[in-house]
Design a protein that fits this description.
Isopropylmalate Dehydrogenase, 2 domains, 12-stranded mixed β-sheet, elongated
């Protein structure tokens, strides 16, 4: 008697801002061979229009959880837009549909219909112009899933770089480097590196906040007063933590080889290095959620929308990593 094969995992891919490059990048997902199924959440008429504009030979297939699509076709879960779309021209009238895509993907992940979700870029400004207080995918996902602390981590260029603080003015960063924030972030990072990335004892390199990691207190005391005590306490629980390290030498190959991930104190301390090494192929991962979520490392690129010149490399990398994280 033959053993029945397990159903393929399904990833939900939200197509993002309809006037941006997200919809046409999603069309490219139909060609590679993936270790599972991909369903794109989008307005089907918009995708059909992009196919015609770009001269692509591609069939769309309506999504049904229990129906496997024909080979080479793109599965689409139709989420209708309110207004017609011109590439590169934002319209707040379609903002609610963008959020509906996210809501449907989140709901499917929480119910087990989808193994995980991948997000194409949205435009925060146009969503806010529609009267929605929207600060980004990460915050929206955290609230919708009732998650606790969430952590932004970018993966690329053979690096994993997580952030203690994200989109704060530089003047606000020192006040946000607190013992509770640092401990909570490290606990989420350590947990998800174990459970999502299969690392039995993740080695985490922790950056200092100040130049030369404070130079013994002569260039700032956050390392002495906050960072070092938290690291010492968490090491006693079994976590493998190194630091606080001077950020200007943390990213040299010899040091990076000694860790599985880096925790940077603020956005522009860690991400310029990673994006220099991997731009166009980097992946944004949200840690601390009850679901798997990855995303591209770029924005809506309105100037490229409709041209067919947008590079799908980051979206492909986000899909590959999501499949790896769900065990496909």
């Amino acid at each position: 008697m033959s053993t029945p094969t397990a159903p393929q995992p399904i990833l939900a891919v939200t197509s993002g801002e309809p006037a941006g490059v997200g919809p046409e990048l999603c069309l490219r997902l139909a060609r590679p061979a993936w270790p599972g199924r991909i369903v794109v959440l989008a307005d089907e008429a918009l995708l059909a229009a992009r196919i015609a504009d770009l001269g692509l030979d591609l069939a769309l297939h309506p999504y049904a959880a229990d129906v496997t699509p024909p080979e080479g076709a793109l599965e689409v879960l139709h989420v209708p837009l309110a207004k017609p779309v011109q590439p590169g021209q934002l319209d707040p009238g379609n903002a609610r549909a963008v959020l509906q895509m996210l809501d449907r993907a989140i709901d499917g992940c929480m119910r087990g219909e989808f193994a995980g979700m991948v997000t194409a870029p949205v435009h925060k400004g146009v969503i806010c112009d529609a009267g929605v207080d929207f600060s980004g995918h990460t915050e929206y996902l955290a609230e919708a899933t009732a998650a606790g602390r969430v952590v932004m981590m970018l993966v690329g260029g053979h690096m994993r770089v997580a952030l203690l603080t994200t989109h704060l003015p530089l003047s606000a960063v020192p006040g946000a480097v607190t013992a509770s924030a640092l401990a909570g972030t490290l606990q989420v990072l350590d947990h998800d590196l174990r459970t999502r990335f299969g690392l039995a004892r993740p080695r985490i390199l922790v950056a200092g906040l100040n130049p030369h990691a404070g130079e013994g207190g002569h260039m700032g005391r956050e390392e002495i007063d906050v960072i070092a005590p938290v690291l010492a306490r968490l090491r006693d629980t079994g976590m493998a933590l190194t630091g606080p390290l001077p950020a200007d030498t943390l990213f040299v190959p010899h040091t990076l080889e000694q860790g599985d991930a880096v925790l940077a104190m603020y956005h522009d301390q860690g991400l310029p290095v990673l994006k220099h090494a991997s731009f166009g192929g980097g992946v944004n991962v949200t840690l601390g959620l009850p679901i798997v979520r990855t995303s591209v490392d770029h924005g809506t690129a309105l100037d490229l929308a409709g041209t067919g010149r947008a590079d799908p490399g980051s979206l492909f990398a986000a899909v590959r990593l999501a499949f790896q994280m769900v065990g496909a």
